[in-house]
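User: Please predict the structure of the protein below. I'd like the answer in C-alpha cell form so I can feed it into my own downstream comparison script.

Assistant: Understood. Taking the following sequence of 352 residues as input:
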Amino acid sequence: MLELNVKKSGGDYSTITEAINAVPYEEEAVIHIGEGTFREKIFCEKKNITFIGEGTDRTVIEYDNGAFDDMEDGSKRGTFRSYTAFFGGKKCKVKDMTISNTAGPGEIRGQAIAVYADAELCSFENVKMLGCQDTLFCAPLPFTERQKNGFFGPRVYTPRIKTKQHYKNCQIYGDVDFIFGGADAVFDDCYIQCNNRYKNEQKAKDLTNESKDDSSSKDNIENKRRINGYITAASGLKEDLGFVFRNCTITGEAGCEKASVFLGRPWREEARTVFLNCRMGNSIAPERFSGWGATHKEEPGTFYGEYKSIDLADSSFADLSHKNPWVKEIDESLFNELNSRAEAVVSATDLK
C-alpha cells in the first residue's frame, strides 16, 4: 500500500492534487494531509484511497465555485461542477479535516457543493463540511433531470450506481437542501446545523420577497414566516434505505427563528429519510418535513419519519402532534428493521 504525505513544506507533495495524480488507479493508497489551508478543487477517482488530515481545525480544503458562475463558453457552472472535493472510485475514506465551499449564500452564488461523495463505498469520520446551499451531495443523481443540463458535471452521462455511505462524528453546516442525493447514507453521532439566512433585516426582506422560481421563497410567502432551510433533500427509490440519522444533533445557528428549519423535503417522489434517537433544537418546524414546493403539499410516495426525537431545550420527547400527515412516527419494530439495514451499510463501508 502506498503512503504519501502532502505538506505545505517538506512533504512528498505540496498539493493534494499532485498526490492523487501520483497514485496508480489499482493501487491502494493513504494520503496524509498536513496542517494548513489547501485552496484546491480536488477530483479523485482512484480505486481505493484514504485521506487523513490532522484534525478539523488544522487541515482545511476549500474552494469557492458556485452554480451561477459564468463559464468560458457562456454557460453557467451548474450545481454539479461546483464541488470543492469530488470523491469517486470504488472505495474512499476521509478523516480528520474540514472541507469547505466558501462561495457563500445560494441566492447570490447558487448551489455550491463542498463534498461530492460518489465512491461506491464511502466513509467519512471526524470531517467538518461547510457551505450554504447543497453542501453535501450523496450520489447518485436521480435518473432524470427536471431542467435541461441540470445534471451537467462529472456523472451526467454515466449509469446511476447505488452508493453506500457512512458519516461518523461529522459536522455538517448549510441551509437549503444541504444534505441531498440518492445514496443509502447513515449518519452516526453527527452535528448538523442550519445556517441563519436572515442575519440582518435587509437580507431577511430580500429573501422573503424573492421573485425567482424557488420553492423555498414560495414557502416563505405561503406560510407568512421565514424559512431558514431544509436539512435534507433525498432522491432515492422506495426500495432503498435512503438517509438514516442516528444519535445526531440537529439544530439551527444562533439567531435562527423558532420553527424555521425543516428536516427535509423530497427531491424526488420516493425520497426516504428517517431520524432515530436524535436531539432537535427549537428551530425545527412543527410539520417536521415539507413537501416539494409547498410546506403542506401531500407527499404520499415518500418515507419520512422519526423515532424518539428529543427536544434539546428540556430533554423531553419532541412534539410531533403538528407533523404533516405523511410523516411517520416510527415504532419499535420499524426502528429495529431500519437500524438493522443501517448497520449493514456501516459494515459494508468499514474500510479499515
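That's the full C-alpha cell string. The radius of gyration is 19 Å.
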